[in-house]
Request: fold
Amino acid sequence: MNSPRASEKMLRRRAQVRINQQRYRLKLQDINATRVLEVTELAHDIARCQGRIEILERCVLRLHEPEVGIVLEYFRLFRSGYAPHQPDLHEQQVALVNAIIEPNLVFQGEARVEKLWEQWRLAHALYATTEMEPPRIDTICVEETTILRVSTTIHLGLSWRSVAVLFPQAADQHHLSKRLIGQVLHLPLVKHFHFTESAWPDSTR
Reply:
């Protein structure tokens, strides 16, 4: 049987434990409140920095407005891919490429503009649909050359032909190829447009 003194000591210990637990919870609340405040302030700082970056990017792009205009026109004309069966659009595509791109265009490791056309023709033949998102443009200046780094995503609709080329193992399985046909590939795409002092691109990759 516990003595009165031992019982009193146990009660004091329990009371102290409750006090310590309460202090710990209050301390945690203060820490969490401080962290929430710091995260909120950090989010505001990030938003302000992003706003400043966007302003600077717009200012830089305005300095290269002719080059940016050329890139936007290229993406406008080729937004839905190569258009051999749309005479007016096809004529504009050919005219733009002939006007702004050098014959020694560097594309996929080859220095010839025909490689660009081959790639567009291949995509037109393989895919049911082609759609490019509006591009994001970043500017890089190297001595007398302006380089526009253009990022976008191209969406390619699968046809039976593209399934047979990309997934030959599925072409022999009717149920599998049928499920793939009509699906859309979403591919990130990065191109670099190089402009000399004349504001025409030397090469596109």
User: Anything to note?
Assistant: The mean pLDDT is 82. The helical segments are 4-63, 65-77, 87-100, 114-126, 160-166, 168-171, 174-180. The chain has seven helices and seven strands.
